[in-house]
Amino acid sequence: MTPPSPPTADVQQQQQQPVISGDGKLYFHRVPESIGSESPRSIRSYHKGSSGTLTGGGIKANYSKQVDMKQYKAKIDKRLGHCLLACIVTIATVLCVYGLIHQSVHTELTTYVNRTHQIANEMKTVMLDDYGKLDNKTLAAMEGHNWMEVEELEHDAYLLDQTHSKIWWLFFGNVVVAILLTPVLFLVHCGFVEGNGFKLVYRIVLLACLIWLFAQFFYLIHPILFGAARFPGMVDRLFVTGYPRDEYQLNDIKDAFSCEWVPDPVLVRFDLQLECLPRIKNSLFPAYVAILLLVLDVFPFIFAIFMYAWSACIKDHKHVNTLRQRVNVNNQRRVHLPRHQENYVPPNPKLIHIPTDKHGQYL
Q: How much of the chain, in percent, has pLDDT values that exceed 90?
């Protein structure tokens, strides 16, 4: 049996503590090995583990990280211009298409409203001379009809005119902005011009486009969205429930649209006649298109805010980070084939074995 090896000098130094006595002699006091402190500040109080190894919580994302503004400006310069151009061109296209449809009934409807306003004004003047003070309730009681007021018809004519003019005014404005923005985007993103001076000009152009969209937002709300929401009720009041009605103008509208005010249901069923009222309503500027234009108008602002929020906190979120890692892994696993293969030889069909069943059909 071999004797145990003596402890090294380091171990002896750790196990013995020097003590000087009163007579000046040096003694070494042996310190017992510690089996673990039981104090509240012990390592065991905050480290758990049955295997004896220390375990921790791992790395956690720090959401208080500030956004790198230089990197954010680079993203704005690279992406916001394309977003602005796409939204402006789309808005101009939608305004042009539905503006042409609206214009097909605008002239006849405006003429009818103005003629009805003239008749109502003349009737009001005559009846005021005969009866003195007269209001709409008195007219309804006398004639049994819902007579439209002169001020109401004036507002209808004003709303029709403002909606029609603003549609085409915004259309031409978006076309001009798109024409000015396109060459600037082409010069910047194709690398024909560089430097801080032109970058400043480019950012001023982007800011001007955002200001245009901001101003356009209010015109899209009023009169376009406001008018589009009131047009169906206006048509019902003019041609169904309200009085007076100009029979000559009604016949002109019927001839212009090749429709009937009171069509035969059988002929309508076989598309041999069209009803005038749905034809007029469907041709006016719809409210859902105005809402779509509002969404397109504010989309560049939402896009810029989203890019800032993405850099600030969204990309570091647990679930988003997991999805990004999965996408990265899938991209790395892809096998990139060459786009152009030279000297490609198709396989010999005789060398390809295609399994068949007992009847000779392919499996």
A: 47
Q: According to DSSP H, which parts of the chain are helical? A: 9-15, 69-75, 81-131, 136-143, 150-189, 196-219, 226-236, 247-257, 265-269, 276-283, 287-309, 318-333
> How far is it, in rounded angstroms, from Cα 278 to Cα 268?
12
C-beta of residue 45 within 8 angstroms of C-beta of residue 37: no
Distance from C-alpha of 139 to C-alpha of 144, rounded to nearest angstrom: 8
Per-domain residue ranges of the chain: 69-103+158-309
Mean pLDDT, the chain, integer: 81
Nearest to residue 153, comparing CAs of 202, 116, 188, 180? 116
Q: Is the peptide bond before 263 cis (omega within 30 degrees of 0)?
A: no
- In the structure encoding, which two tokens stand for residue 317, read together? 């979120």
> What pLDDT does residue 315 have?
84
Residues 242-274: tens digit of each pLDDT: 888 889 999 999 999 989 998 888 988 888 889
Please, what's the b/e burial string for 118-135 (b: 16 or more CB within 10 A of its CB; e: otherwise)?
A: ebbeebeeeeeeeeeebe
Q: What is the pLDDT of residue 350?
A: 56
pTM reported for the whole predicted model: 0.72
